[in-house]
């Protein structure tokens, strides 16, 4: 048994405390100076302490991070972006272990210790993206814990053979399988969802459907996904990512859809993109529906943006939703930390006994100050192991 004491920190801005970690798990949080002696001790110096950030929606296989700058392609629609990516990824060697490792290092540098990542599975790459991502995680000694979703970025039905690849991915240990715009991309929403739900039921995987379609077309697909979830054994195991339509509906229509989402236990993730409608996140919270924050792609053929800092995504979320009170700003940081636990299949995540000891120390006055300034991460622990010190990863 190994005991580590992280002393003199301020969990969530509370009075100074000591965090006691035993074999990589938080066992006690006690007033500063009262922790028993351990095998090792780290002085937190009065830093603000937060749980490790949870990136609930990433695509770490797509990035060209570490390679020379790649100009954006100018593609506007989802279909055009898919085509542009497919036409240029081979010259960049995407997917590859080096770029994926570099992206994971950036996530870790900013305090992210757990990630749900979508990994492309298609007729061009087959399943090799899954292997590349696993190799990259191993190169960092699994300092970033990954939950992998096999993702059919190029569509499901319009590319015969993709359903078979998703079946193989699920059989090989992927935690989830994905779907994308059943109506506008495959143009057969019923058949796409039938195929995906059947695989998820057979293998006990989670299901994460990217839904970019807007307005009533998007709402229609929400309803189809809800119907399938209620008709199967997947309640509480389905996520709708992006889901822009939910924020665009009239209030009474939103309320109706929120009630049905709660009945089916369907969660959501967002990357808080600019120029989209705010989501009814208080309604999701009041119904106990998880909402996770993610970076989406980082420096890839869809977009040149992103640095891996989930605090910046959380700030974008706060701005998009017009939030300014300390209470609301703190709630947004909760979305980026403890609120992400369901998306990486953790029953507990936080600075509480029984949780994996993922801990981030920052020089900030309080949580709102950390959100607004996004200061350098002074120390990051993953499973009780120091993995970042003074902003520099120690792993990989």
TrEMBL record:
<dbReference type="InterPro" id="IPR011059">
    <property type="entry name" value="Metal-dep_hydrolase_composite"/>
</dbReference>
<dbReference type="GO" id="GO:0016814">
    <property type="term" value="F:hydrolase activity, acting on carbon-nitrogen (but not peptide) bonds, in cyclic amidines"/>
</dbReference>
<dbReference type="InterPro" id="IPR013108">
    <property type="entry name" value="Amidohydro_3"/>
</dbReference>
<dbReference type="InterPro" id="IPR052349">
    <property type="entry name" value="Metallo-hydrolase_Enzymes"/>
</dbReference>
<dbReference type="InterPro" id="IPR032466">
    <property type="entry name" value="Metal_Hydrolase"/>
</dbReference>
<feature type="domain" description="Amidohydrolase 3">
    <location>
        <begin position="98"/>
        <end position="388"/>
    </location>
</feature>
<dbReference type="Pfam" id="PF07969">
    <property type="entry name" value="Amidohydro_3"/>
</dbReference>
<protein>
    <submittedName>
        <fullName>Cytosine deaminase</fullName>
    </submittedName>
</protein>
